[in-house]
Amino acid sequence: MNRRDLRDDPAFVRGMTSRRSALKLFGASAAALALSACSIPGQGGRGKITQAQIDAFWKGKTGKGALKWANWPGYMEDDRATIKAFTRQTGIRVDYKEVIQEAADWFGKVQAPLAAGQSIDFDLMVVTNGIQSTKMIELGYLAPLDHRRLPNFARYASPKFKNPSYDPGNAFTVPYVSGVTGIAYNTRYVKDEINSIAQLFDPRYRGKVGMMGDSQELGNFGMFAIGVDPEKSTPRDWENAARKLREQRDQKIVRKYYEQNYIDAVAKGDVWLTMAWSGDVYSLANDDVKFVVPREGGTIWSDLMMIPKPAANPADALTLMNWLYEPRNNATLTEFINYITPVPETQRFVREDAAKATGEDRADLERLAGSPLVYPTEADLSRLRNYRVLSQQEEPQYQKIFTPIAQGS
């Protein structure tokens, strides 16, 4: 299946958007997870790792020539071209499995063995930044990364993906791919320039605005709307943002709070503008639907590579992580995934590949290389913020404030 065929495959699009549903902060499974994790004795902690601990973990660990990798569907070519190239260059065999469908479910599967220090039968896994990845860090389930073995990350990763609030110093994780939550709008119906979150609250668009039902995404945009940086927000900010969002709802400006089907709604004109994920808009390939990072800000999320502490082959996993940050290697993967790459220098190689291609492949690659949905501008990146890192004590409070809004209470 080529790039165009894949983007036209509804199953693939559903797979891509399902990764965003994994960020649902306060579903039943996430709430249960938060409660159950409170009773697990911690083995580590965010920001507490020392170089001595890193050295102690990696002492004597050498490559064995094989690793097992757990990832989401749609994040690797059908013919596994990237994996084959890695094996050719390094001699390391990769057993790649698309076994992660939802972050809370995955955590539920691996929590018990990781808590016991037992293998989960994978050496590398990809989990979205959020509740589950934070708990894995705080509970000491992840191997500390030896950045001396990750020179390509230091050299080629965008500054935006270094030292994030959810993992200071990238002590345990590095991004695999990323995406942005911004605004999509249909130019057939909206003739004004859309550049502000305030326009999602404009009574002129009453009944034609889509908002996300996800508590974390919705809360973020509420905070942006009142001029608050979500990463630095306080409970009082949450209350003020929720009041703004309830006013929007009660004035009937919002047509619907969406999970995954907002992209069809904006394409058809059921809503004229909506909160949206950048990858969905790119995959839609509809010239009428535009995506913008509003001037107040947008959210950047990342699906993160991490090594379980009991991994049998951590050195090989770290070799793969470093290899994927080499621009030529990452460019091939970016051409398939079409989400934001943490390696901006890949753009040069995508352009080179476009110059060598013909027909639809050339057009696809030229579009990819020039898309701000894959290669955001520095101005766009400067307006992006991560999700607020919530402590176990803060989670219920945040839930109580934002969850009822989309539920109508």
Strand composition percent: 5-15%
On the 0 to 100 scale, the average pLDDT is 88
Task: Pick out the low-confidence regions.
Answer: 1-44
* Total number of strands: 10
Provide a count of the helices.
18
What distance separates the N and C termini? 46 Å
Residues in helix, %: 40-55%
Structural class: alpha/beta
Q: List the secondary-structure elements in sequence, H or E.
A: HHHHEHEHEHHEEHHEHEHEEHHHHHEH
Main β sheet profile: 10 strands, mixed
> What is the alpha-carbon Rg in Å?
21 Å
In one word, what is the shape?
globular
Blueprint (SSEs and pairs):
Blueprint: H1 3-7, H2 10-21, H3 28-37, H4 51-58, E1 66-71, H5 81-90, E2 93-98, H6 103-115, E3 124-128, H7 131-138, H8 151-156, E4 174-186, E5 209-212, H9 215-225, H10 235-250, E6 254-258, H11 262-268, E7 273-277, H12 278-284, E8 289-292, E9 298-306, H13 314-324, H14 327-337, H15 346-356, H16 359-369, H17 378-382, E10 384-385, H18 394-407
Parallel strand pairs: 1-2, 1-3, 5-6, 5-7, 9-10
Antiparallel strand pairs: 3-9, 4-7, 4-8, 4-9
Helix pairs in contact: 9-10, 9-18, 10-18, 14-15, 15-16
